[in-house]
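Teaching soon. Invent one.


***
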Amino acid sequence: MTTRRSFVKTVLVSAAGAAGLHRLSAAEKERPQQVDRRPLGRIETPVSIVGLGLGSAYTEPWRDNPEGSEALLNLALDHGVNYWDTARGYGPSESMIGPVVEKRRDEIFLVTKSRSRDHDGLLRDVEASLEQLRTDRIDLLHIWNLPRDADLDQIEGGALKAIAKLKDEKVIGHFGVSGHSGAAILMAAMRRFDPDAVLTVFPCTRDDEGRYEDELLPLARERNMGVSAMKMVRRARNADLKGSDLIRYAVGLEGVHCGVVGLDTEAHLRENLKMATGFKPLSAEESASLRRRADEALVHIPTPWERPGYQDGSPA
């Protein structure tokens, strides 16, 4: 796989593209209220301040209901939720969203991830992603889930060279790094690789003794990197905490551009749409109160992504 042509086996034919344009023009006549957007750092593309997390929260309830899945995805997109986060390792996620991506590609900021660290493995991952997603391009590709002992030399000599090639061929637009194993390894990768974006955890409990907020986020702001928050509500599912407040906390942090939320039910989606339209961040007092309540409620609930064997995108 050495040319862009090898990636486009499933690209739209012109008739299908024309049908998609007709649909868009009709939709614009009765456009629902749109969620707020922010430029994604140096990438500059305006992205919805809430993004669709398309891991297990989405795949498990919707894998056997393709019509319901497509309706939910279209509902989010109709309201301007254009940041879609998937990965090669999220089971059937890429193939599940592929039909909507194919029809409405130009409305979506499409993010996927590869866990491959070597050159050829990353190329194979991207080729498979493009086929499943029914597109010929990816807007943002993350080097997925850097552990504390990640071999940055291997990544630099392998995966990064493949990424440079794919960027030259305009198969991917931008690249980033993701992880939740401590701020230190992500910051080392940020300084060494200078990625366009970073995806990591910003729960109100200030994981890693606050280093994500106090050290990683200022570094990202300094380098104008796009920052997306994840794991905002995962620990709190069994606690008496309002999910939308937990998202507001993270999305209100200076330098966070988008909060990625698992797409599970229409009710949760609508709650998040409401929160993200005319967004109002928590005040300093509200944030402090939320942190105190979260610390008390979650003190005996372990952090799922710190458990041995945890895989991003899997159930907590």
Q: What stands out?
A: The chain has twelve helices and ten strands. Strands lie at 37-39, 46-48, 50-53, 83-85, 109-114, 138-143, 172-178, 197-201, 226-230, 258-262.
